[in-house]
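Just wondering, can you check both lines?
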Amino acid sequence: MWVFGYGSLIWKVDFPYQDKLVGYITGYSRRFWQGSTDHRGVPGKGCVWGVAYRLPVGKEEEVKAYLDFREKGGYRTTTVVFYPKDPITKPFSVLLYIGTCDNPNYLGPAPLEDIAEQIFNAAGPSGRNTEYLFELANSIRNLVPEDADEHLFSLEKLVKDRLEGKRNINCL
């Protein structure tokens, strides 16, 4: 069984896996529209880059149960086709955790400035939401330098500008 990670599953890999591949899925867009500490993609146009992890043989159900718990709070699973970055490897099916608009934590579309403000102010048991944003942006930059995830990198810039503004105010 393969699982696709496109958020914290890229940079916070706290589960066993046998193999991993960088690649993308189509028919989805990465958006910060989930009102919890777990922000993931939503159905949309384009493609979403991330990492597919092959779960250890014989431990698939155990690891999936752990991921089901970790990705709670409005996520459902679906199967999608994963396209490895290496064109020699053929596409294959992966399990995707996706935030849906019918869950109580769903915030939906909003101006980037509003989303940046939410990220800037949000913190939970897993830490500050700014950490999530910056870790994800750095991971995508390192894994797929050619990706221009406008939503992700625009939010990163807006939140960094807010942090810089806060530092400047504290220095006065």
